[in-house]
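Structure in, sequence out. Go:
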């Protein structure tokens, strides 16, 4: 019985996570259109400063805090593409 409950909870979490991801993707497209549209709006100097001072993870975190519609994958891509 406990196994069925655990499976049910796991499925519910997966469904909720999938819905949140799809909503974030839609909101991102509505707001920025594309990765290039997003990249043009970011204050690259500020994110580079965070990256130099605290590293990639801190830069990704700062980017996602300022731009909440950006997925972790997009934020990482943006930080990775910044000049060193």
């Amino acid at each position: 019985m406990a196994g069925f409950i655990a499976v049910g909870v796991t499925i519910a979490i997966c469904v909720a996570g999938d819905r949140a991801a799809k909503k974030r993707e839609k909101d991102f497209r509505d707001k920025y259109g594309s990765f290039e549209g997003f990249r043009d709006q970011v204050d690259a100097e500020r994110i580079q400063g965070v990256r130099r001072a605290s590293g990639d993870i801190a830069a990704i975190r700062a980017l996602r805090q300022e731009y909440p519609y950006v997925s972790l994958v997009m934020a990482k891509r943006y930080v990775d593409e910044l000049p060193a």
